[in-house]
Design goal:
It is built from 13 helices and five strands. It is mainly α.
Length: 335
């Protein structure tokens, strides 16, 4: 089993990033390692170039994202952690696969269609073609499985199409078709101020999110002020119906406590938010404080974090090299 997944290096990670992706990665790495497989997690700094970047900010964000992953539990002894740009084979394979991918396939990508309807002509060529780089990211390591959310399944299907066409065009059995790993446990965490919107670092209100760097007091105060309603919690999660803010807070509690939402309702059904919010705050502090402490320690020695990425890139490059050689032979680049 070989699992590959990437995340763009953005600053100011928050609870939604942790519960929606990183926590799942930590669980996955342990399960894959126990099964004798290998997990590769990378910082997608090449993907970040599809939009305008500030060089110093991109470099800082990459180190900070790596530190956050390490602080949350990604273990270089169990997984391969690296940033994309340090493994040039990603770029080389992406360019080669550009000759296999078809314009029509990329035009059908939902995210591109959304952009094209607004300002497609103003987008970079890289933004149009980044799904091919995504395909290269996973095919380079002959991934057997790729963790994806529902909004990314289309990109994995494209990777499978590219793999199939390459294998057919050059009469080789080179790329396996990676299978999706859609985690049903990954929750969708919404804003603390507006539960119709996802928790996001781009929200102008810092009160809308719990940052991984927030102090204990900030966590308590943000949850105390989180938008709710006046009704008590019912006996089951289904009974929350359209109470979006209540559903969001219960979802956060369940994700932090590693239990079901109905378990939360069993413990708190009939109680108001005056009792539930302090309990949620205590739980959030208990879970996030160790991450904040570990993150601060790691960021105090950024050179060590960068060294960890270099070591991970060396391991990733060693895994990628045989695939690149096979591809070059298949298409006639090795004479």
């Amino acid at each position: 089993m070989r699992v590959v997944s990437g995340i763009q290096p953005t600053g100011n990670l928050h609870l939604g990033n942790y519960l929606g992706a990183i926590k799942q990665w930590v669980t996955m790495q342990d399960e894959v390692a126990d099964a004798g497989g290998i997990s590769l997690f990378f910082l997608a700094d090449l993907h970040a170039l599809t939009q305008p970047v500030v060089p110093e900010q991109l470099a800082a964000n990459t180190v900070e994202m790596a530190a956050a992953l390490l602080a949350c539990g990604i273990d270089p002894a169990k997984s391969v952690l690296f940033n994309q740009a340090r493994v040039p084979a990603h770029s080389e394979l992406a360019w080669i696969l550009n000759g296999t991918a078809r314009m029509g396939w990329l035009n059908r990508m939902t995210q591109w269609k959304d952009k094209a309807g607004k300002d497609g002509a103003g987008q970079s060529v890289g933004y149009f073609g980044y799904p091919v780089l995504q395909a290269a990211d996973v095919l380079l390591y002959k991934a057997s499985h790729v963790p994806v959310g529902e909004d990314q399944k289309q990109h994995l299907e494209l990777a499978r199409d590219i793999a199939t066409k390459f294998n057919t065009d050059f009469a080789v059995d080179l790329f396996p078709l990676p299978e999706p790993m859609v985690s049903k446990a990954a929750p969708r965490i919404m804003s603390l101020r507006d539960a119709s919107a996802k928790m996001s670092k781009s929200d102008p209100s810092d009160q809308s999110r719990l940052n991984l760097t927030d102090s204990d007091d900030a966590i308590v105060q943000k949850l105390k002020k989180a938008k709710t309603d006046a009704e008590p919690l019912p006996a089951s999660f289904a009974e929350l119906g359209e109470r979006a803010e209540a559903r969001n807070l219960v979802t956060i509690y369940a994700a932090l406590a590693d239990c079901s939402t109905d378990d939360v309702m069993r413990d708190f059904g009939g109680r108001g938010f005056g009792q539930f919010k302090p309990a949620l705050a205590d739980l959030a502090v208990a879970k996030l404080a160790p991450i904040r402490t570990a993150l601060a320690t790691l960021l105090a020695d950024r050179a060590a974090v960068s060294d960890a990425l270099v070591a991970g890139a060396a391991r990733a490059s060693a895994l990628a090299a045989p695939t690149v050689a096979e591809v070059q032979r298949a298409i006639g680049l090795q004479i």
